[in-house]
Amino acid sequence: MAAAARSRAPAGLAALAVALIGAATIAGAWFFELVLDIRPCPLCLEQRYAYYLVIPLAAVLALAAPRAPRRALIVGFAVIAAAMLINAGLGAYHAGVEWGWWPGPTACAGTAADLGDAASLLDRLEGAKVIRCDAVQWRFLGLSLAGYNLLISLAMAAIAALGIRPIAAPAR
Q1: Is the residue at 52 inside a domain?
Q2: Other beta carbons within 10 Å of 29
Q3: 160 with 76: CB under 8 angstroms?
Q4: Helix 145-168, helix 42-64: angle, nearest 10
Q5: Is there a domain that residue 63 lies in?
Q6: Within a 10 A sphere around the Cβ of 160, how many other Cβ atoms?
Q7: Which helix (DSSP H) or strand (DSSP E) does residue 140 occupy?
Q8: What's the pTM value of the predicted model, to 2 decimals?
Q9: How confident is the model over 83-102, as pLDDT tens digits?
């Protein structure tokens, strides 16, 4: 039993790393939004969904790694890796929209609404703030937040894949 727990220690560490990296990434996104007033566009918000799935799942895997069934751990890590690879694709798509390589979704331009009378239209226009998906609000070293999300998502997927290795390897 002790040998099995030791062989799962790397899996627990991988899950903990994924949870901490994900939490730090979301905390950074909230910092940009709430403290620096850099508002997220619709694509930015969609890229957060994977983190909201992966962070608690990785935390549960980290706690359960010593005792959970191998299959449950493998499935958990596979879900994390898949979610983060999909999120990396979304980050790449968003970065391409920002660079003008392809058009963004129509949600980034706002939707048509019943205009009503001029007074209510002006009231709504004053309160409305649509953030464009193709307008980069912040760059560091040439990458936007979407570009960094792509890299972080790929790293988290790789860590999750590495977490599978020690538990999927045949016992010696």
Answers
A1: yes
A2: 20
A3: no
A4: 20
A5: yes
A6: 28
A7: strand 139-140
A8: 0.80
A9: 999 999 999 999 999 888 88
